[in-house]
């Protein structure tokens, strides 16, 4: 982290921007450590939603009246903001979806339908969220293609030698996450993409856990598809983007049919709209897309280096504290991680730990985190996961550690 040009942050000033943080839960000040599931929203995002509905609400693209023009302009402004956020070459490479799950389903269904054939292989990894497993199972079953899985090491890193071995001329798609939601592992995606391209495969990156923490430059990565969720980057739920290289998106058939994705419809034949609208059927989530611009501005104003450096400080602090508690076993000890720490306490069920922490106002995630195969890999049913954001503090981590220690002592 020493290479980061981080400026010191004023956490209190940041916390003041998040109304939800200032409440008591079960009589205790809320400590929100479930940021990998969804992070909280700054006031400017919430205000943008209200502003849209109070002043500009109209359906976009089709109307010529003033409100429709205002709404369309604001909606398209977010497309430009997201283009800049990930450094995409063309604006039409940014497609609005409901989030990462829909983005992956879109690619699997559309690209898969056009380009996957019997015996072809799709490589995913043992670190994947169900959202980057099931869509590939669905299309592979339909196209009689085969899924191969990159194994995970004991530290929670991808076994890159195994990846090199499994790649072949049969590989048509490689789909992996940029960072793991369960373990926090940051994957060497640039290397994964380079190797996949040498085998002639296209690469989809699930960026759900990266967008709030890591620099994303899709041109530098040279990925073919990149998926982002608004709700994991301080934006509203129910929206996100799919980035795709223009040349590929142009060759792919539509995912859904309906309004906006057409140029011309007769009962005999429909011609499809140009990118990105070809993939945006129906009235989209206009308000939330518009408010996403404010989330992007929030991140940009703080700076990714500053965010990453502070979150790393929290991660290291939390991992050391938790590891120091007798009976706690950390799950996920990769060298490169985003601010996620999973752990188990042998003999105490993770749900019980979660419930007892909640009684102390501390929100953590418990369970398999939609990564059941990964839990199987570690021979566990689930973990307790604490994930940290820019508004969290070391004092809150002290509370977590104290809570965990008390639970261990209480259950002994
Ligand atoms: N992939 C990963 C790594 C995730 O963490 C999540 C959300 N938990 C998803 C995919 C699904 O994203 P969304 O909620 O946008 O559908």
Tags for this model:
single chain, Aspartate Aminotransferase, domain 1, four-stranded antiparallel sheet, alpha/beta, 2 domains, binds 4'-deoxy-4'-aminopyridoxal-5'-phosphate, Aspartate Aminotransferase, domain 2, 412 residues
Structure in words:
The chain has 14 helices and 17 strands. Helix 11 runs parallel beside helix 14. The protein is α/β, with parallel strands linked by helices and 412 residues long. It is 40% helix and 17% strand. It is globular and about 70 Å long. The protein folds into 2 domains: 11-39 and 304-410, Alpha-Beta Complex (Aspartate Aminotransferase, domain 1); 46-300, Type I PLP-dependent aspartate aminotransferase-like (Major domain) (Aspartate Aminotransferase, domain 2), CATH 3.40.640. Strand 7, helix 7 (189-198) and strand 8 (202-206) form a beta-alpha-beta unit. The strands form 5 sheets. Strands 4-10-9-8-7-5-6 form a 7-stranded mixed sheet, with helices on both faces. The longest helix is centred in the N-terminal third of the chain and has 21 residues, at 66-86. The model has no long low-confidence stretch (mean pLDDT 97). It has helices spanning 11-15, 43-56, 66-86, 100-115, 134-143, 160-166, 189-198, 218-221, 246-251, 286-302, 304-323, 350-358, 372-377, 394-411; strands spanning 24-25, 28-29, 31-32, 94-97, 121-125, 146-150, 171-177, 202-206, 225-229, 240-244, 262-265, 270-272, 328-331, 340-345, 362-363, 365-367, 383-387. Bound molecules: 4'-deoxy-4'-aminopyridoxal-5'-phosphate (PMP). Residues 99-101, 129, 131-132, 177, 181, 206, 208-209, 229, 240, 370 line the site of 4'-deoxy-4'-aminopyridoxal-5'-phosphate (PMP).
């Amino acid at each position: 982290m020493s290479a980061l040009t981080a400026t010191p942050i004023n956490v209190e000033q940041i916390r003041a921007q998040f109304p939800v943080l200032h409440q008591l839960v079960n009589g205790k000040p809320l400590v929100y450590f479930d940021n990998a599931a969804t992070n909280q929203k700054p006031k400017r995002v919430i205000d943008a939603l209200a502003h849209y509905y109070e002043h500009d609400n109209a359906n976009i693209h089709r109307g010529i009246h003033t409100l429709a023009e205002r709404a369309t302009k604001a909606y398209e402004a977010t497309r430009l903001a997201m283009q800049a956020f990930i450094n995409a070459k063309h604006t039409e490479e940014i497609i609005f979806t409901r989030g990462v799950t829909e983005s992956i389903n879109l690619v699997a269904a559309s690209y898969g339908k056009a380009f996957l054939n019997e015996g072809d292989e799709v490589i995913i990894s043992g670190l994947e969220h169900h959202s980057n497993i099931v869509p590939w199972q669905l299309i592979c079953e339909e196209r009689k293609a085969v899924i191969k899985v990159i194994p995970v090491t004991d530290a929670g890193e991808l076994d890159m030698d195994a990846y090199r071995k499994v790649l072949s001329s049969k590989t048509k798609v490689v789909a992996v996450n940029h960072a793991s939601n369960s373990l926090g592992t940051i994957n060497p995606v640039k290397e994964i993409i380079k190797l996949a391209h040498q085998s002639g495969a296209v690469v989809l990156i699930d960026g759900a856990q990266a967008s709030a923490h890591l620099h994303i430059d899709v041109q530098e990565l040279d990925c073919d598809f990149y998926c982002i969720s608004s709700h994991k980057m301080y934006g509203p739920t129910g929206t996100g983007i799919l980035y795709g290289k223009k040349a590929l998106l142009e060759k792919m058939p539509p995912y859904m049919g309906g309004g906006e994705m057409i140029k011309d419809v007769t009962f005999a034949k429909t011609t499809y709209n140009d990118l990105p609208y070809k993939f945006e059927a129906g009235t989209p989530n206009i308000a939330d897309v518009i408010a996403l611009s404010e989330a992007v501005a929030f991140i940009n104003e703080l700076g990714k280096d500053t965010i990453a450096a502070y979150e790393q400080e929290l991660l290291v602090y939390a991992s050391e504290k938790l590891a120091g508690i007798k009976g706690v076993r950390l799950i996920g000890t990769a060298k490169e991680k985003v601010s996620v720490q999973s752990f188990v306490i042998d003999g105490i069920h993770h749900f019980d730990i979660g419930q007892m922490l909640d009684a102390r106002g501390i929100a953590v995630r418990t369970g398999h985190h939609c990564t059941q195969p990964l839990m199987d890999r570690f021979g566990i049913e689930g973990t307790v996961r604490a994930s940290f954001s820019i508004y969290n503090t070391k004092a809150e981590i002290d509370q977590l550690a104290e809570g965990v220690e008390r639970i261990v002592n209480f259950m002994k």
